[in-house]
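Problem 12. The chain below contains 412 residues. Write out its predicted structure in token notation.
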Amino acid sequence: MMYKKIGIVLLCLLPQLLRAQQSVAVPDGPAQRAYEIKVLTRIADPVLNALSKNQLKITMPVEAKVAKDRVYSTYLEAFGRLLAGMSPWLELGPDNTEEGKLRKKYIELAVSCIKNATDPKAADFLNFNEGRQPLVDAAFFAQALIRSPRQLWGNLDAQTRKNVLDALRSSRVILPSYTNWLMFSATVEAALQKYDNSGDRMRLDYAIKEHLLWYKGDGIYGDGPSFHWDYYNSFVIQPMLVDVLKVLKEAKMDPKNYYELILGRAQRWAAVQERLISPEGTYPPLGRSLTYRFGAFQSLAQMSLMKTLPKPLRPGQVRYALYTVIRKQIEAPGTFDKDGWLRIGLYGHQPNLGENYISTGSLYLCSQGLLALGLPASDPYWQEANADWTARKAWKGEMIEIDHAYTDPKEN
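Solution.
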């Protein structure tokens, strides 16, 4: 009899419990921005605090299959990749808001780090030219400079600018493989072109034309001549093509208007990326380098930053989707070690996912998923109401847009 009464009470309370569950407030756009800034600074603090004091090499742990084999490159990986994702936020500059004051702190930290990283006399002078891996992260460092001409490049003293240019040029001794690596060489040259008018036109032209040949259709490039099911279209290929060609367009060095061509393809890839995000904020664990976590959505974040999201995507739905992915991964137990350094994994600590080229420094590519922080807080991206993204709507039984394959304008 007692159990029957309890059951009746629970049935009576069920509607209230369901309503309470439904009424749990989802953070709005400004709150999501505040959360993502905390994520970015949490990721950045160990790297920037150590490098600014010339203590990165003695402080940073090196987790890898064979740690001693990655020491030569892992420090530049951490710094270059972190800065590439952080630079759009820094580029907003300081102001009198709490966020603006916080940016001022991190701009100053980043400038100090650049000085130490490129000064041959500094304890933390980083390796830009020995072995193969440094070419990759010289490119991410170059990408950061391209994305922040005022607050990063603009705040460097004359000697540090020279050191930066020398460091980038020194990476030319590394021969890129016939894959997405061509974009690393091209991105280094784009930065040299932008700031020194000394970009190697051959390296730029070759990388662009080979990727145009490797285009497979519907917004996807091969990684070299072959197609791979992975996220390298977002980790490297499409964002670097966009950034490099934007530099060339601004320098009036894009006479065939390749920029518009690759931008259309990048928009299609961003539309695909948005549909890959499940209703729960997960995504297919396809291909290699899964330990870059939400860096897998760099292209979607980049199109948001550039205000070039393809129709019918709305800023509010993209923001909500990316926030959900970022929060799920960053809060997984084991993502950070006790000192705040990232650990290998897709969801928490999963060291078995670390390929032989993965080390602690590699993981900081996740910052590329935070590019939209480069939009000011007043932008519609942060001010629009939360809206369900495509998969979330679809699996609620709501109306969604029919998806269509993309063809280049010349093919229409």
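Discussion. The first helix runs from residue 2 to 22. Students who got a different answer should revisit the alignment rule from Section 12.3.
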